[in-house]
């Protein structure tokens, strides 16, 4: 149990990237339309986020510098500002979607329209960020998110045709066009590697006062949290492929997306999965709202973080509060939260290289890292992913326009 | 002097780093720019921060918006950027640590007083900082570059030397400045601490962009793909000693010697 508590930062961060509201639905949609033929993208995403989260966690432990400090320091004020603008925009959009997602989970339980739940969810989320200690917050929502493991149990209970799932791995369905396939591939990769994950993860490491002694903790967080998030996202796709694909249905809401669990495990399973969905989306709400404060403060050099009293980090807390207010207003316009994340995922794919390039550079800088610089393997993977991310960044927006966002 | 003076590259090691207050690890600001006292042996006098230091570096509409908004809300007639004397710097590493009881920047103090302290549960707003212990006035000196409206008289900003076109003695374009090499052998600032002196310029043949640290020896070109790419984009990189500079202004820098006679970075 003690070991598990030590990796809740990784779990909370990863769930915010892999199984937040946009990905929950996107995974189910992808599963029902493409079967398991996009599973390889998730695997590529898991490895990619592990490589860069490990570097950023190691940098945070050795030098106490979180990711946006590195962006500003290595890329300079201009490119840093471009990245800040893009990341902040994505953060607030995603924050709006996550607040909506947590409210949708409450609608599933209570039957009350989700718009009624939006203001209380936003208020409680802000109170948590204002007053609750970082490690308490991370433990409660990281552990509660583990309820989503019920998808694994449900998949096993559904008894899918494993042979068919395996064939789907290498054979995309014939009735979908190549651009649409690639568009979803980019959306999945963007979801797996969203920049706010490393902002939150490395800042969380600083909040927890990691030092060189905690390098093992940092690694454990990365190599437990992110693969677990990735496996869950694959499981959700597999459940959808089993239940929806044979009847050619496409889930388009949270209520439909949890149906495979209800079919496999009945009412109790449904209760657990809704708890998991709520915890994951609420956790992602905290992650994106704090990330907006972290990135802005770290760009300008302001005091940030929950490790100081709220009154000692005024600009940081005002930023967080303002982001929550703007995001709440946005979601109250009745804009569809799931649509919002679909767009923000693609924009985030376009912003990826500017975030991961300075991480890769500084992980190699002996002035920062001493003897803890990247090994050859990390550099090989890191360089490969930089090329990949560059291609993805260039292709993301043209593909979105060409496929009308995957329709 | 027993040990060799410390050498830093301004853009790589100092600019845009986090400034941390030594006494309580509080994050104060970024090194948005450096104040330099020009002359035959110029030296760095202070760290400049805040919108009035960052804005001019950003340039364009965002930079203009940043400086003008700041001026609008500052009551003073000639508001200057937030300034930390170099003599207060105790350590330059992944962060720059400074001694003394420096106040926070104006925006933090205003938000603490007028917004955050009014929200219930705002612990910590009562901990007021001691007033700024300020800094000694830099001695005045003849101007060599056009000073900004808010700068201290007789000073210039280090970022003004970056990204400039460099010309050789016969007026041909030699390259662009990519970094400024600082050597800690300037005049004494505090009893034991010498000032950093701009000792020369790193000049790239092709591009004015950042070198990301890949100007250092090939042993540090990692990952190798990235190092090779950045070096290739910049073309050949050479080093001009300070006394090889004929003149400099806001637009261009003119050298006394031709490109071929400059030192290569391999000698550094």
TrEMBL record, chain A:
Per the record, membrane topology reads:
Multi-pass membrane protein
Q: Which GO terms describe its cellular component?
A: plasma membrane
Q: Does the keyword Transmembrane apply?
A: yes
Please name one Pfam family that this protein belongs to: Nramp
UniProtKB keywords = Membrane, Transmembrane, Transmembrane helix, Transport
Q: Which domain of life is it from?
A: Bacteria
A single GO BP: iron ion transmembrane transport
Please give the chief subcellular localization of this protein.
membrane
Q: What residues form the membrane-spanning segments? A: 38-60, 81-105, 111-128, 140-159, 181-201, 222-248, 268-292, 313-333, 345-363, 384-402
Q: Does the keyword Transmembrane apply?
A: yes
- Report the locations given in the UniProt record: Membrane
**What GO molecular-function term can you cite, just one?**
cadmium ion transmembrane transporter activity
Protein name, per record: Divalent metal cation transporter
TrEMBL record, chain B:
Q: Where is this region: Disordered?
A: 121-142
Q: Where is the composition biased (Basic and acidic residues)?
A: 133-142
In terms of superkingdom, the source organism counts as Bacteria
Q: What is the protein named?
A: Uncharacterized protein
Organism of derivation: Microbispora bryophytorum
Q: What is the lineage of its organism?
A: Bacteria, Bacillati, Actinomycetota, Actinomycetes, Streptosporangiales
